Amino acid sequence: MSAVKIAIAGASGYGGEELLRLLSGHEGVEIVAVTSRSAAGSALGEMYPRFLGTRYGGLKFSASTAEAMVAAGAEIAVLALPHGLAHEFAVPLLAAGLRVIDRSADFRIRDAAVFEEFYGGKHQAPELLAESVYGLPEIYRDEIKAARLVASPGCYPTSMLLPLIPLLRAGAVSAEGIAVSSMSGVSGAGRKAEVAYSFCETTGSLRPYGVPKHRHLAEVEQELSLAAGSGVRISFTPHLVPVSRGILTTIYAPLAGKAEAVGAALEAAYAREPFVRLLSGSQFPDTKNVVGTNFIDIAWRPDPRTGRVVLMSAEDNLVKGAAGQAIQSLNLMAGCRETDGLL
Amino acid sequence: MSAVKIAIAGASGYGGEELLRLLSGHEGVEIVAVTSRSAAGSALGEMYPRFLGTRYGGLKFSASTAEAMVAAGAEIAVLALPHGLAHEFAVPLLAAGLRVIDRSADFRIRDAAVFEEFYGGKHQAPELLAESVYGLPEIYRDEIKAARLVASPGCYPTSMLLPLIPLLRAGAVSAEGIAVSSMSGVSGAGRKAEVAYSFCETTGSLRPYGVPKHRHLAEVEQELSLAAGSGVRISFTPHLVPVSRGILTTIYAPLAGKAEAVGAALEAAYAREPFVRLLSGSQFPDTKNVVGTNFIDIAWRPDPRTGRVVLMSAEDNLVKGAAGQAIQSLNLMAGCRETDGLL
Amino acid sequence: MSAVKIAIAGASGYGGEELLRLLSGHEGVEIVAVTSRSAAGSALGEMYPRFLGTRYGGLKFSASTAEAMVAAGAEIAVLALPHGLAHEFAVPLLAAGLRVIDRSADFRIRDAAVFEEFYGGKHQAPELLAESVYGLPEIYRDEIKAARLVASPGCYPTSMLLPLIPLLRAGAVSAEGIAVSSMSGVSGAGRKAEVAYSFCETTGSLRPYGVPKHRHLAEVEQELSLAAGSGVRISFTPHLVPVSRGILTTIYAPLAGKAEAVGAALEAAYAREPFVRLLSGSQFPDTKNVVGTNFIDIAWRPDPRTGRVVLMSAEDNLVKGAAGQAIQSLNLMAGCRETDGLL
Amino acid sequence: MSAVKIAIAGASGYGGEELLRLLSGHEGVEIVAVTSRSAAGSALGEMYPRFLGTRYGGLKFSASTAEAMVAAGAEIAVLALPHGLAHEFAVPLLAAGLRVIDRSADFRIRDAAVFEEFYGGKHQAPELLAESVYGLPEIYRDEIKAARLVASPGCYPTSMLLPLIPLLRAGAVSAEGIAVSSMSGVSGAGRKAEVAYSFCETTGSLRPYGVPKHRHLAEVEQELSLAAGSGVRISFTPHLVPVSRGILTTIYAPLAGKAEAVGAALEAAYAREPFVRLLSGSQFPDTKNVVGTNFIDIAWRPDPRTGRVVLMSAEDNLVKGAAGQAIQSLNLMAGCRETDGLL
């Protein structure tokens, strides 16, 4: 089988860089173009010396246009662009016959009005929202295989949805009263020249932000509502902590039945999933066990004192929360094994 | 006024070291003895080179006994010992006429049965529990001034109680349905030779622990129940994160009335407190603004979508959460200004 | 004695912030003005929430002009400005009768041609170079007391000069063949919005820079040559490492006589200095013992295998290497005890 | 071609763990046994949850004996044991017909007297020293291919020898007057339960150690002397810095001829090496570009002011400095491509 040809837009961010790192070891994929507004004309190894001497070290960034991606012969395009820009690429790429995996929020929200409430501005390609598939492979595997347009989930949403969806589907937890606290590494903010993300301002710093209405709530509540069969509203507090990579999420959910139903629902959903690890015994998730990998580790503790279950998950925000999860979708779309390049 | 003479037991831990650092700059206090089982006979500056050339650099650790503290002429003893050891010192020290500030949990819980449920083993000096004052100066200032025995609060409890007590007293939040997520720096685990706290195992690591029934719940629920006038049960998840010092706590509490009542209750309680800073506008607490100081920073955000308020606090676990708060009590007991040595 | 009135220009950088932190505890000094181009009009506590509720939290930044500093009634001005800007302030401030402590390199180099070789551009006030005193208190204490203009040393130079000057003066080491490796925390680069100093690009990073001709060589070789009585040329490599604060310097110097002469010369120079700690026995300097303090720790190890001595020093680049050392000079100029506000 | 069967002794240390991580992706190698004194009987994934769900997650640690390794059918044994223990395994393993790659210092030093000077105690298998090959593949590739016993180099030595050997061989630098400063991540100290390596004692800490006679000098000076054709003595100072992984080494060497000879010699030696990257232009080595990889990055700057060249290298102490370099040797011995599992 010949390798599938892909192009990556916005490859100079942390998520794009991680796509390149992971795909360097994926024999079934050939990257034919990488675009970057800031780095066009430079070779990957010049911009990011860690790639010198590796498979794509000599690949040159092309201008950041859909045309360049089509001209390179790509079959599938991965968009690692800021919110609000993806539609400029997705529309012409789809028109040119490519399939598209989008890492932005632009096609994650089915209801354009909700998108506009959380992200501001008018949605520029609402006609694609009905077609777009929310790219959580553990939940929408078959739809992804057949999709033209996949909206790959956000990093925080992945860490909440995978623990909660099976529980809401099974009625093991209540749809009301859920609260979530997450902490994320600084790479989640992107490669930014801002004092707020400088070493000195972050290294000894623990801080919440985006309270009480972080943008990721839009996609999280959409998917939780679908799982619950009714509208779900949650509290969510993200925190910035001094690690480069990793998200640790802690969820408080009211038990809706017996405590044992929690483990049963998670086991039923994930026992055969290659990238979801349910921790047993006294183990807790720890980001150091997942950084650099596509795993998400999940543990849970029923608390009879409060009638809640505490769910905890750990993932690498740049892998399972971004590039790795996108490669799972890519593998599904291209007919590769889902674990290729990832395990 | 001559300086009050104090002795510190267990001064070789991080909390004890911080007491020594802060008291080096306190003219109204003279440290006459420091005890340490492991360091007896050594000078402070030998054990901790950062103290070389400072006020107490030449002070020698004495054997870890109550007798040594009495013999040194101390008027007030500060105990920075592990849980379960404090009563061995407190009983003879009180008998010898000293006043005692205890940094362990031994005298924080009014009900010996609750202590035994959370800490295990039989309480060794239950007769002192009725007399002991819970050493939160903002809540129990007058009682501390007159106390013989002060049980200085734990680091996590301080970060929850100061935001929540005024709200429960004022009826601004409900006593049911409170959930708390905290993250703490590694010094909270003490100066320990364990692989789990080594640099390599913690630097890239975010992890929960002690779920769902951390020991600190005993004192937290006791004090919240007193504030609410009824029994309070909360969910609490502590997390270990890669900073040396600092606790960031995020609290979800159901609003019991108008959202404005939250700010009003906090302002009424803390507007004149020297060490509680209520953050206004768009500011969030950040541990980097409090590390090394005795401040606790508090912010709040009502969330009409969920009917909750999100409360956030930041403190230095070794200062406001330990040594600094103990010095506030010491100042109150000794008749110094409450801010001496701290501001 | 009434407090001496001082004004600080460029107080919004890390060095300026540290001056404010240290002077908050100095009763003999009153800050009457702080200037900042970017923060004029804001209160210190608004810009830097860590100062809320402290002595200078309400102080407002004024416009960044010499006039504002004169108008505020300052007797001594401390300039914490980038290289090449200090003369714009120093000339009018001196003309208005103020004394000046400059934290930039502008007045450190006696020979304007050397300044221009290392810093580029024409020196704008060469007539002041003869008068300016190099502000190393341990070396130029009497000159500083009487100075109108003090050029406070750079952070790296302090860490090399204090170990080496007594050895060159005593002839214990050779003036030829000295090599120096230093590593510095990221605050040394200033409060900068650059990707290169972002958390993700620095936290796992060890890197040299500025090889082989770092600007600080100008003042280092000037002072070493004065100590040796002949021209000294050294190799110097600075490295950026992932700490906020601290410089660790390692020096290789050929022994010129007996190995014992090294310790003897250092003891003779520093035994009575309050801020230089000569480490004995098996101790090595460690930045964690000096961060936040004005100490410099020095150790040495003769190596008979190579005929060299290895000298090692640790300091806080923002205190002994910057703000603290400037306060030593300020105390000397103002007639305070040299340790006021620092110990 | 069937996979070569290997066994790893001491697999529960950081170096052993890294071997397991890298070999999980190496199709030409099959691990048939891992031994650990502390973990015998447990599965790899139980001890190190990061391996759960990966190729070797279910592999059980066997008792730490040579017999267990032979019984498992291993053809090549990799020893990741503390110094002084390797001979207990190497002698019986060689006798049983296995080939051995040793990661300790036991077989690196050709002269048993030098070994005993630097490591103490009597060498237990001096008869093997003449046969053992020093496992630097870029220098001893052909010897490694044919070796029964390979002594894989230390982490610091690799970072010095690769830059210096070609220069000494070519006469581009002098054999006298070389000085080296290195800084290493904390994993270099091993997985240790010691307060000195705890997070709180290392995170803000920069410190030298092992001055002036670190053990690694024995192998470094041996190999430099072979390259120079005469005895070489160098100064070497290692430093501990707060990163998990990575070594940055800075070398001062007197130029012996024209400055251009340095680059020419390095280009001649390494232009075709897959794992040595010579940085051009203004680039400096940075550990963040090599961590997790088997690359060593090298740059150089002649300094006409001092007549020296400054050489700088960066490597991952656990990969190119340990596990990766051992796999290069393994590949050479087993007839795989040298880059298999590494690129």
How would you describe this structure to a colleague?
The structure is a homotetramer of 343-residue chains. Chain A is an alpha/beta fold and 343 residues long. Chain A has eleven helices and 14 strands. Chain A has helices spanning 14-23, 44-47, 66-71, 86-95, 112-119, 137-146, 155-169, 199-202, 217-228, 260-270, 319-334; strands at residues 4-9, 29-35, 61-62, 76-79, 99-102, 133-134, 149-151, 179-184, 207-208, 235-240, 247-254, 276-278, 296-303, 308-315. Chain A has a seven-stranded parallel sheet with strand order 3-2-1-4-5-7-6, sandwiched between helices. A seven-stranded mixed sheet of chain A has the order 9-10-8-11-14-13-12. The mean pLDDT of chain A is 96. Chains in contact: A-B, A-C, A-D, B-C, B-D, C-D. Chains A and D meet through loops of A and loops of D.
Q: Would you spell out the secondary-structure blueprint of this structure?
A:
4 copies of one chain form a homotetramer.
Chain A: E1 4-9, H1 14-23, E2 29-35, H2 44-47, E3 61-62, H3 66-71, E4 76-79, H4 86-95, E5 99-102, H5 112-119, E6 133-134, H6 137-146, E7 149-151, H7 155-169, E8 179-184, H8 199-202, E9 207-208, H9 217-228, E10 235-240, E11 247-254, H10 260-270, E12 276-278, E13 296-303, E14 308-315, H11 319-334
Parallel strand pairs in A: 1-2, 1-4, 2-3, 4-5, 5-7, 6-7, 8-10, 12-13
Antiparallel strand pairs in A: 8-11, 9-10, 11-14, 13-14
